[in-house]
Design goal:
By secondary structure, this protein is an alpha/beta fold. It has one domain: Rossmann fold (3-Layer(aba) Sandwich), CATH 3.40.50. 41% of the residues lie in helices and 21% in strands. The chain has a seven-stranded mixed sheet, sandwiched between helices.
């Protein structure tokens, strides 16, 4: 049974992500078989120009820059990530906040859409995060989560396990300058296998979303029965 991420492990993940900042985009694009831009376009296509959007775990702004919404709030626990994103995202449409998905600092019913792009697996308390996200979405608004999980036993799991454990750290060694790697001491991607293996089957997240109060919860796999797009809506009315 997958185990939740503890706080010490979570802090190690954040430090690893911050170390990767100058090389974040190039390594992630290669690590996702050059499909990351396509998956981001699917998520950005759910956003309308009149929307107010919250992106949780926005990182250096790779998805936020694609969003055409009238207002985008980039939320990340790393102030270093947010500083990097500020330099990348032009215009007055963007706001920035440092906080956790489990404790969102916004008034109820603030956003039309909440998006998470490969940040959901880093949430320490996923049921609580679902409840928090529901609370800040306006009635009729939607949540969209792009993430990966460990496939069911079989050839897909064998491939993904090998890719995450072996190929991804090796790609970082190729794409990240040697002097930067030497300064870190530990390959930042070596810790990511932990969050991948901590993910539960997709049915668990459908259940969590429903129990939090989302309706019309559905998902589809985008690749290897590992990468998925999960979505749900806040009901327009409550009993």
């Amino acid at each position: 049974m997958p185990q939740p991420i503890d706080e010490d492990s979570w802090r190690g993940i954040i430090e690893a992500l911050e170390n990767l900042l100058p090389y974040y985009e190039r390594t992630n694009i290669v690590n996702t078989w050059f499909l990351l831009p396509l998956w981001r376009r699917e998520l950005s296509g759910t956003v309308a120009r009149e929307d107010t959007v919250l992106e949780i775990g926005s990182g250096p702004g790779g998805l936020a820059i694609l969003l055409k919404a009238r207002k985008v709030v980039c939320l990340d626990p790393s102030r270093e990530m947010l500083s990097y994103a500020r330099n990348k995202l032009d215009g007055g449409r963007y706001r920035f906040a440092s906080a956790l998905a489990e404790k969102l600092p916004f008034a109820p019913a603030t956003f039309d859409k909440v998006l998470c792009s490969f940040s959901f697996r880093d949430f320490m308390d996923k049921p609580l995060a679902f409840r928090e996200m529901l609370g800040v979405i306006r009635p009729g608004g939607r949540l969209h989560v792009l993430e990966l999980l460990r496939p069911d036993p079989g050839w897909r799991r064998a491939f993904m396990d090998a890719w995450i454990d072996k190929a991804v750290p090796a790609i970082a060694r190729v794409l990240v300058p040697r002097d930067a790697m030497a300064k870190w001491g530990v390959n930042p991607y070596s810790s990511f296998g932990m969050t991948y293996k901590a993910m539960s089957p997709i049915g668990e997240y459908v259940r969590m979303a429903g129990e939090a109060g989302f309706e019309d919860v559905k998902y589809r796999f985008l690749g290897m029965k590992s990468i998925f797009h999960l979505q749900g809506a806040r009901p327009r009315t409550t009993l």
